[in-house]
Design a protein that fits this description.
The complex is a heterodimer. By secondary structure, chain A is mainly alpha-helical. In chain A, 64% of the residues lie in helices and 11% in strands. Chain A has four helices and two strands, in the order H-E-E-H-H-H. In chain A, a hairpin with a 3-residue loop joins strand 1 and strand 2. The C terminus of chain A is likely disordered.
Amino acid sequence: MNQANQEQEIKNLVIARLAVLPEDIGISIGQVGSFNKEEIIKHVQQGDEIGKKITEVEMGFLKGLKQGVYYGKEDHFGDSA
Amino acid sequence: MEKKTILATRPDFELTTKYISSWASKVLEFAREKEVVVFDLAKEKANRQELETVVREQSPDFVFLNGHGDYDKVCGQDNECLIEADDNAEILSGKIVYALSCRSADTLGKRAVEKGALAYIGYIEDFIFLFDEKQKDFPLQDKIAQLFLEPSNQVAFSLLAGSSAKEASENSKESFLANVKKMLTSEAPKEQKGIVRYLLWDRRHQVCLEKN
């Protein structure tokens, strides 16, 4: 898989995960602003800075799971959430 | 015995500052119950001049900063820079600081500790919280935001109750974790389980800096 395809795969994955959040959810990302679900998904699709930040959160969590994060084990959360 | 003192900055000019400053009011209520002297720099009072005056004249034990920030600064009302690493970080000397602000623990926090702050608890990355769009005019009734802002407040509650800075940060992280577990139980609505990754993000990026 080339890099562009891989990036698109990641975007699709992140969007799929955002899509299952409650409909009325909003996200505040500090000084960048606050966004509703639809706006956040749009930022991920566009791959801008806001989209990249959300992707970082989502992928960081998935990497943590892959590394065998065990819920409740303090140290694991600290290192890999 | 001399009374403890807390200084809080609580800007309020858009959604994020409205939320964090509303939830910070719970800390100040608790402080008053504990007979801690409170200096509340809310809204327009959250400016650099007021902050520096109160710090100089009242020398609060605990400084609770709420507002937007960046690696090297924390801001107040209308994003006026209140404290900047290369400018006035020394005003935090001798104080315990909790900054509910994006990224500021990275550079400002380190500088503040170098310049004599007893401890600086904050975030080395963006503090992200989720909220309920239907409740955005009533931040204190927002059960989604509560999942984030109660664990954040735990830092301040713990400090006011006599915990060390390190213990206060650990208590806050425990509180984030308790909410993660709550979200992962079968009682939590399925669509809310996604909130977990944002709780873990904030938990992971909270640090407690102290002089070695």
